[in-house]
Amino acid sequence: MTTSANEGQFLNMLLKLINAKNTMEIGFYTGYSLLPLAFAIPEDGKILAMDINKENYELGLLVIRKDGVAHKIDFKEGLALPIVDQMIEDYVRYYRDFVLELNEALAVDPGIEICILPVGDGITLAIGSNEGLHFLLILYIKC
Ligand SMILES: C[S@@+](CC[C@H](N)C(=O)[O-])C[C@H]1O[C@@H](n2cnc3c(N)ncnc32)[C@H](O)[C@@H]1O
Q: Keyword set for this entry (predicted)?
């Protein structure tokens, strides 16, 4: 418990200001600093909580359950950095296959005229035409 009550309220306010839904807590300990985050996010929000020590998590969970926010916590035991690295790797691998498959399907589709333009993370533009009707596809993968 190294977070002050004021700090917790400040973090709570910041999360509400940006309408945060998902967040992370690196260094859970007994969850004292996580509580104001859990109260700030919506019912279906999630906190990925990481700590190298699971015993303290289990201790804190008793209190967190009483506060009715335990369902918002996804706890992972271990060093935070490798956990986050693995998540990024999984994310990239997951979407890479999808985007490659999509690009292949668009490339062989006679209804798609030419353009497959990746404009940013998860966004692809394609120009199509079908029986004289031209259209612009904006394919958006929500991250
Ligand atoms: C000062 S306590 C955290 C206090 C908590 N945030 C609070 O204010 O109530 C630090 C916690 O970070 C954990 N920790 C330290 N290094 C870590 C790492 N690399 N990955 C995950 N957890 C770590 C420790 O096990 C400890 O429980």
A: Methyltransferase, S-adenosyl-L-methionine, Transferase
